[in-house]
Amino acid sequence: MTLEEEIRERQKKEPVNPESPDMLYLRLVDTIRCYHPSDDISLVERAYRLADEAHGGIKRKSGEPYIIHPLHVAIILAELELDKESIAAALLHDVIEDTKYNYADIEKLFGKEIADLVNGVTKLTNLPYASSEKEEIQAENLRKMFLAMAKDIRVIIIKLADRLHNMRTLQFMKPEKQIEKSRETMDIYSPLAQRLGISKVKIELDDIALSYLEPEAYKELKYQIEENTPEREKFVEGIVQEVKQHVYKETGIDAQVYGRVKHLFSIYKKMKNQNKRFDQIYDVFAIRAIVSSEKDCYAVLGIVHKMYTPVPGRFKDYIAMPKPNNYKSLHTTVVGKDGRMFEVQIRTEEMHRIAEYGIAAHWKYKEGKAGENITRAEIDKMTWLRELLELQKDSENNSEFVNEVKSELNLFSDSVFCFTPQGKVINMPKGSTTIDFAYRIHTAVGNRMVGAVVNGKVQPISYEIQNGDRIQIQTSLNASGPSRDWLKLCKSPQARTKIRQWFKAQNRPENIEQGRAMLEKYCKAKNINFQEINTPAAREKVMHKYGFMDWNAVMAAVGHGGLKEGQVVNKMRELFSEKKPELTDEAVLEKFRQDADKNARLNKEKEREKAKNGVRFGQFVIKSFFGSGNGSAAGKGENMVCVCAHCCNPLPGDEIIGYVTRNRGIKVHRTDCKNFLSFSEAERARSIEVEWADQPESKDSYGVELLIYAYDRQGIIAAVSQTFAENNYNIEDFHTNRSHKGVATLIVRITVEGIDSLNFIVKKLRQIEGIYDIKRSNG
After folding, report:
1. pLDDT tens per residue across span 613-657
2. According to DSSP H, which parts of 535-611 are helical?
3. Is the separation of the CB atoms in 77 and 90 below 8 Å?
4. For residue 198, which phi and psi values (nearest 5 degrees)?
5. Dmax of the chain from CA atoms?
């Protein structure tokens, strides 16, 4: 006799509590039989028997037997019409974590597929959201979640069902835990359910979370909706019958038409975003028509627009351009005969199934045969999942990763559709600029972007993309890379992450050295022996805490300000907080020898530093002739004159090098000067090591030549000239070249006081519309 038969026999003899494990098991079996063609429930029965035995005697906070929870999770999955393997895994999902059974036991009893599903959910559950290191643990949890999704998406579907039942029983938790879980649900799980297209789960998660996060607003909204229920139901029923009759009369289509009130959270969100009261929100309910084909969808749309007045700008064709989660439907908002607005959604039965079940629909069984499970190729088509996996690779620290993931998940709700020059549809977050579009196409396209052409017209890179735009990105191999200002212009986390990565890669060597110097300086100021705490174990502890892959990444983060020196040093010192053992006589003697050696080395370094000081000539310090070993320039440079070369115009702060001309004068070039780099070996033997003097003898001005690249437009020269004049910069020379492609090159020679003065005016020039690049002439 099967377990199902045993329970039904007991049910005949005595009344049974409908929420008892026995009755929930029968409910699970009945739900599976509604969609599954096979009568074989043995796999589910075996999983239930093991879970019941493993959790025997354990109670939940509500006082119910623990087995109630896995049963409810399994029922949620059955309502989504998942396969029996997923349902068995749901019944067993807490077994590895909470009982004596391990992965090997589950694999032996149920096979590798179910064992992997159970283990995947266990790994996600093992990392709590809240702790003293909340951000680090949350980041690790998210990383594991997305990697699990890439392996088998069912792991996340089971986790969503687990979260949904936990939210249903949240009243048994402490108030602070209720807020924490609700916030986590709103930030991560609800957007994730929406990304997977499982609206049944998302809607309930949203409403429950809202009831804990905004209890007063939730109660008031619920009261207002229920207060007008009879009148609204009467109005909706009249619309439903009217639409159904007109559609059948004019097209012969027997559509399923029904009305529904929108869920509480969507109404609350609309009230908050639009700053309106409930009585100012008109489309609080929607009419849905389900037909048999796409052709019928458009036919019904025509009838609806003929019957009622459509609201301009409120029609959306998600059939022609589906959402990233494969949602398809026609949406239109119309005005009824009494002036009331309502939304109409039109879709086929297949579209409706995907809208309700999302990606879970891939495991539905039809016509007695198992439908194909989702393939790896289909996973790869989920662009948003691929981007999230890229984010977890590219983000250098946990804080950046967590914030970008939340942003990426929540950007999905509002999208615009645009096209590549080849006609490919690209879905972008609302508010995206052409910078976001460029990085969506490819990282290299974004890094080399110099402009954009939208619908055949040149637009600034700050242009906000509109529905239907056809966008072509203009690139150049000579592009100087992204500007930091782009971080303020772009909308998508993907673009921001790629831009940050570019800057970190460009300055990485300098940041690493700067980070090391900052750590050593910090330790010196705090009387901490850096060499003593700088051990492999201490470095590993820091990397693990802050989510870095290698020690150089930590140093770079300190160098560019992403991590504070004190954070790193304090974490390293944790390994040395215990009391140190007393040194032996031999150890004391060895330490004395090491200190003596260290002092001797320092004295030698000081002597070498004195020899390297060189001789000062005006604003320069002559160090040594390259062609003469390391000898001092003193005696060789008497009566010499040092001047800046006019070919490259070096400024204080530039890396420089001297060249001894035949008339005994020294010309100082930038190290990247084209003229100097073209010298022969014999000529380079006349080079000399030169540095800028720390304190200039007088406040000099320097000539510098700028190459300004801009789209040729009326007024560009006037705008550039005005910028120089407003900021008190003297123009020594100004001429322009124009190309047949509509690009102008403005060659301007100005005087500046130094590198900071130059950077200031370049920043001002970059703010002029049409300028896409500025370079400094190097000879």
Report:
1. 566 667 777 765 544 433 334 344 445 678 888 888 888 877 788
2. 536-546, 551-559, 565-573, 585-611
3. yes
4. -90, 80
5. 118
